[in-house]
Amino acid sequence: MLPQDLRYALRSLVKHPGFTAVAVACLALGIGVNATIFSVIDGVILRPIPFPDPDRLIVVHSRNHEQRINLGPLSYQDFKDLRDNVSTIESIAAFANRSLTVADAGGEPERYSGLTVSANLFSLIGERPIMGRDFMPGDDTPGAEPVVMLSHELWTLRYQQQPDIVGRAIMVNGRAHTVIGVMRPDFLFPENERLWVTIAPYQDAMPRDDRGAIHSVFARLKPGATRQQAESELTAIASRLAATYPKENENWTIATRTIDEWFLPQQVELVLLTMMGAVTLVLLIACANVANLLLARASVRHREISIRAALGAGRWRIVRQLLTEAVLIGLISAPLGIAIAWGGIRLIDAAMPPDQVPYFIRWSLDARSLAYTVVISLLTGIVFGLVPALQAVRSDLQSSLKEGGRGSAGGSRARLRNALVVAEVALSLVLLVGASLFVRSFLNLQGATVGFDTTPLMSLRFYLPGAAYEADDAKARRVDDIVRRVESLPGVEAAFASNFVPMGAGGGGGRVMVEGRAVDPGREPGIAFMGITPHMRQTIDVPLVAGRDMTDAEGSTLTPVALINQQMARRLWPDTDPIGRRFRMVEGSHQDWFTVVGVVTDFRHRQGNSTEPQGPAAYVPYPYEPTLNTGITIRVASGAPSSIMPAVREQVRAADPMLPLFAINTVEELRQLSYWQYGLFGSMFATFGAIALVLASIGVYGVLSYSVSQRVQEIGVRVALGAERRDVLRLIVGQGLRLAGWGILAGVVGAAAVTWIIQSILYNVTPTDPVSFGGVAFALVFISALASYLPARRALAVDPIVALRND
């Protein structure tokens, strides 16, 4: 019987191409956006972390309640003590991000994003090189011969997959390293790194209180051990370390979390689930639309259904036939929905900056996504087809035969159609309010002040490799030379170098002691601590609000003076003039007392989604914070900032041809890069909202258009009896506005609940933002009024005499 039902359903759909096209288009939109977001969620959330036994992997962090640090990094010395004393953990490994410059004969030096790793890291996560060998314990000891592991990508791009690469010596950060292996093609752990070196040569000499040296610590539990047991044991070891090293470890303890929590922050998961909820609303609105179309069509086909029943067809047989038509519409919509999803994924990929997604997260229309699309197509066919099918066989079939060919618009069917329209409007309001909040968050970020004009600024970084730059004064001299060369270029107004780049982050920080003020150890205030060459203020054009600027002589030497921002002035000297006051860093090699010579306005070191202003910051002469990885910010007089780069490259090469340049961006690009996620999410939610608005408009128009077509005779009688056309118009438009009003009321309640859930991922906009709620409600009222007016106007255009003769 099924083949017969399918043939009949197909003939029926072909016979009514207008109905079929509208139904398929509505469903394809809903299915397409669902398949798009499912593909993303499948790649990010549903697929397991690609390591063996990921449930036995945990991430170890430091914690300090006094300093409000909950998930901080460990120092390398603490890591070694934990590694050597813990019994519930099978293996524990540390790694840290590192800028690595590769140079060898015949090639330009290039900087790559790399990692310093414990020798056991790859075995801990179940990875092996495809060529050569893994790191061995002897490689990860102070004084060991340096070795390096290459990614397949770097081996391919720089060395053209030369088979003799293993065993070859290459220069990494100015030191000869022996290549010991090449990893598999799709391995760039932890996110998008290109090469790996052992951690001990870089970190072993670090002091115990340097907790910024290690990026993360992974641990694999022993079989049968639990995360809680491991955390309890690690905490006990941390307590013993605090007793042994009170100066460095007082108030420091241990926290752990799962590997999934480390790789997928809660905010990212919340955004993705919110998007899945949004596209589910779109699909429900599409289903409501098609269900209304089927209800209207069932009314027109009521005589046909009655005749089939009179000829012996049972009610279930009729329901099955109508349901087959609905499922067939869903299946026909699937290929178009897949095409929409393919385009949606391409657009998402194009909107994402390079290297912003970890290497193991990929989304595509694979077998899982295609299976999901087919299943959702079948389910939607059943969802939107079942109720209209049951409704079609509920009324008295004998009465239907007596009515002749005229369609019947029963009261229960009309109430169901109206309820579906109310649901569409309510769901649309929820989706549109969410879209409005995300768009407003993006606009707030885009327009947020950063404390300076980013448009005339260019930035870049370079790395100082090799033994020639091991001494701090050698770094400072080279950096000073490069800045002077750059500032001498035509078109350059000013330039400065630092361990940070405005909007590009970087820099250091720590706790400070204020002269003349006693504070308990560990409770000293924390600040950002930046080493700068002269002319920072002139380059980024930040005003001086008190005192004076740093002189050229001070900025080029170890002269203990400092510029501070307003936040530091307010935080450390709230009731006094900070000029002439002194402070020093609690940790670090330099223990000089810095004298505050000037206060500058607050400006952001990086943009983000925090509503908090830039924290306390001090800017001291560059020789106090010379770094191998140094940034230069350049202010151009006119034109595009990037136009200065060829001349800058020449000057850097003239200073030292072995210095690789990287992270070359305009500062405006850096500003925009910091909130690209909000732009992407805002665009996606705006698209979903627009689709929902169109579908809701079609729903209101369709129901009222059908209702008016069934009331032509009534309207003719009203007009013939003297009713004014505006009264009839008010009657029909009022019906549409009542439906919209009920939908808006229900939608406001739903939207309030949803926006309360997503408030943590909004920027500078409240979850009950009146502009969003009011604007969306007004838009829906306007659209509903327009959708009601069009069929009303068409009905009034009919001659009353013709209307009275109708039927």
Task: Describe this protein's structure.
With 807 residues, the protein is an alpha+beta fold. 50% of the residues lie in helices and 17% in strands. It has 26 helices and 24 strands. The strands form four sheets. Strands 3-4-9-6-8-7 form a six-stranded mixed barrel. It has a six-stranded mixed barrel with strand order 16-17-22-19-21-20. The protein has a four-stranded antiparallel beta sheet with strand order 13-23-12-24. The chain is elongated.
Report the helical percentage. 40-55%
User: What is the overall number of helices?
Assistant: 26
Number of strands: 24
Which sheet architecture does the biggest sheet show? 6 strands, mixed, barrel
The termini sit apart by 37 Å
- Report Rg: 34 Å
Poorly predicted parts? 403-409
In order across it, which strands form the biggest sheet? 3-4-9-6-8-7
The overall pLDDT, averaged over residues, is: 85
Given the C-alpha coordinates, what overall shape results? elongated
Q: How big a fraction of the residues is strand? A: 15-25%
Structural class designation:
alpha+beta
Please describe the topology of this protein.
Blueprint: H1 2-15, H2 17-46, E1 57-64, E2 69-72, H3 76-85, E3 89-103, E4 110-117, H4 121-124, E5 131-132, E6 147-150, H5 152-159, E7 169-172, E8 175-182, E9 195-198, H6 200-203, E10 216-221, H7 227-244, H8 246-249, E11 253-258, H9 259-263, H10 266-300, H11 302-310, H12 315-351, H13 367-392, H14 397-402, H15 411-447, E12 457-463, H16 472-487, E13 492-498, E14 500-501, E15 505-506, E16 508-514, E17 526-532, H17 536-540, E18 544-547, H18 552-555, E19 561-565, H19 566-572, E20 582-585, E21 594-600, E22 617-621, E23 629-636, H20 645-655, E24 661-666, H21 667-673, H22 676-710, H23 712-720, H24 725-757, H25 770-796, H26 800-805
Helix pairs in contact: 1-12, 2-10, 2-12, 2-13, 3-7, 10-13, 10-15, 10-22, 12-13, 15-22, 15-24, 15-25, 16-20, 22-25, 24-25
